[in-house]
Amino acid sequence: MVRLSGKCLLYLPPDYAPGSLVLPTCFRATAQYLAQYGPATRGVFRISGSARIVNAIFDYYCYEKAGEEVTGTIRCPTLPLYINTGAQDVASAFKKFLSVLPGGILGSLSLFDAMVAIHSQLRKEPELSRTKETKLRARLIALAIGTVESLYRRELICAVFGLLSLIGRAAETAAREDEQGRPLPTSDLMGYTALGIVFGPLLVGDLLDSYTMRLATPSSGLLLFPLTPPRLKKERQLKKATQCGTGPLSVDKIHVANDIAEMIITNWREIIARHFFRSREIAIAYNSYTSAKERRDVNVENNWEYE
Questions:
Q1: CB atoms within 10 A of CB 168
Q2: How many C-alpha atoms does 118 have within 13 Å on its Cβ side?
């Protein structure tokens, strides 16, 4: 996407991002528009926009003719004026851009695996107070994101969840009653749960199909099995479960993904406020260590003196 549309800086409020974020222009243009108009738009991301307008936005940034070389990657960091767009159209285009990303928003099953562990283990810990649990969950999420090696992927993750947290908080804090105490319509508000349902399937995209999850018992939490277990082992497990009649219960992976998306969106402000800068420092240190180790391996292989 950077090759086709270039890259630009996205600016979100300080509570929702650790600073300016480098994004492909297609994400920057749509996210900046949604940061401005999304919180006030009812049903944003849930109500589909015009297919014609969504396709026009997508083609403007990402269309590439077969056999034609890309000679320039500069696009306007705002939406093109000749396309008459609304918030629902831009939201649908934003989701379409995410849907074609390899690995979805998170980019890998290993990061998704870490989020599943955070979600399942902390939910079952009775000794933690709610405040301590929130802080610990936010710290673990920040550390997991901080280990992503790709800078562009980390920036994208921050941009997506920062935007969703901004929109979700506006819905969560919206007034439920008017001045006379009469209830206001709230069914179209996109709070954390509603956003989690929309963006859960986009966390890892098609990779979710190859992810294996089982429940030992309904009360014991999630047990993570190997992502691609050997075929013979799977057949033995299936045969044993059939014979005993008490095999492990299947898990609705989409439902789990929705819960994880909601967890990240809900805790995002805490992640940014207290933990993300530290996790970014850890990621930088990790990358520096990896680079130094690679240089050392090359030097040893070539009989060079390592400094």
A1: 26
A2: 27
Distances (CA, A) of 274 to 162, 237, 253, 271, 277: 15, 44, 30, 6, 8
Nearest to 140 by CA among 122, 165, 154: 122
Write down the residue that tokens 């406020």 correspond to. 273
Say if residues 306 and 300 touch (Cβ distance below 8 Å): yes
Cβ contact 4:64 at 8 Å? yes
The token pair at 230 is 């050997």
Q: Which residue do the tokens 């990303």 mark?
A: 101
The one-letter amino acid at 57: I
User: Which residue, chain included where needed, has tokens 């902390």?
Assistant: 122
Q: Please check whether residue 256 is in contact with residue 241, taking contact to mean a CB–CB distance below 8 angstroms.
A: no
pLDDT band at 210 (very low <50, low <70, confident <90, very high): confident
- What's the pLDDT score for residue 7? 84
Query: What is this structure's pTM?
Result: 0.77
Quote the tokens at residue 272.
């940014």
| pLDDT of the residue at 34 | 97
| Per-residue pLDDT tens over the stretch 107-128 | 999 999 999 999 988 765 555 5
Strands (DSSP E) contained in 106-254 are: 213-215, 222-224, 249-250
| C-beta of residue 131 within 8 angstroms of C-beta of residue 232 | no
Vertex 163, ends 53 and 208: CA angle to 5°? 80
In angstroms, what CA-CA distances link 222 with 227, 252, 300?
A: 14, 11, 44
Lowest mean pLDDT among 2-6, 26-30, 132-136, 153-157: 2-6
- H or E element, residue 79: none
| pLDDT class of 182 with cuts at 50, 70, 90 | confident
Q: How far apart are CA 37 and CA 34, in angstroms?
A: 5
Phi, psi values for residue 224, rounded to 5° = -95, 120
